Amino acid sequence: MRERNVAQASRRDREFEAFVAGAAGRLLQTATLLTAEPPDDNPRARRLLTHALAHTYAVWDGLRGEDPYDRTRRELALRFERGVWHHHGFYRPPPGGVLRALGPQERLVLVLRLYEGVAEEQTAALLGMPAERVRAICLRAMATVLHPRREKSVPPVVEVAPS
Amino acid sequence: MNLREREAAVRRILDRRPPVVPPELCADAVRRGGRMLRRRAAARHVMWLVLLAAVVAFAVWASTTHPWVEPPSTTTPPVTGW
What we know:
The complex is a heterodimer of chains A (163) and B (82). With 163 residues, chain A is mostly helical. Chain A is built from 7 helices and no strands. Helices cover 68% and strands 0% of the residues of chain A. Chain B is elongated and about 110 Å long. At the A-B interface, helix 1, helix 2, helix 4 and helix 6 of A face helix 1 and helix 2 of B.
């Protein structure tokens, strides 16, 4: 029994290490975009990713064919969403991040839809909102990212006609 | 600029300057995840112990009080002298 557990643990460690080696770069980029921190100073994104990866490690033996990357990304997104309300209600990202002009929810939707390429319906299901709202938030966020100077003087309420 | 071009432009902005992965990230995650696993295993052990204790307590109680035996009636006096 004990030997089997030890063998399972070492196999889990090996597989997990290989997974992290392949996926950590992209996931850290995702986390850094979410927290809107500059790429060279991103303690909050690192913490977020470490916690999400730890969760994936803990459920590794029970994944049963589920993609660990998907699982980690979901954990990352939900953890970020929870953290925004629980601890960082008045959090202002430091200057330097690409998406600092956006609100947390806009960042979450934009990163999941465009950087991670998650489908609109899946994003909606993950965040518990209708797909139309996901599309509207994504379009608004895209407009803010593409025309940052014009939006800076105007508060974040921006009307965008879907093309 | 149509929607597809704007999406491509935003993607290019998002792809800029990827952060460097800290070398201790994997070890930290393994340590933290291992702690979660151990905590869960400990909780499972405690649950089994509590269940076992409850079963033993019930067995002892049942064997001493015999709750399945009908208690003697307290309203009808015992019938004697037929």
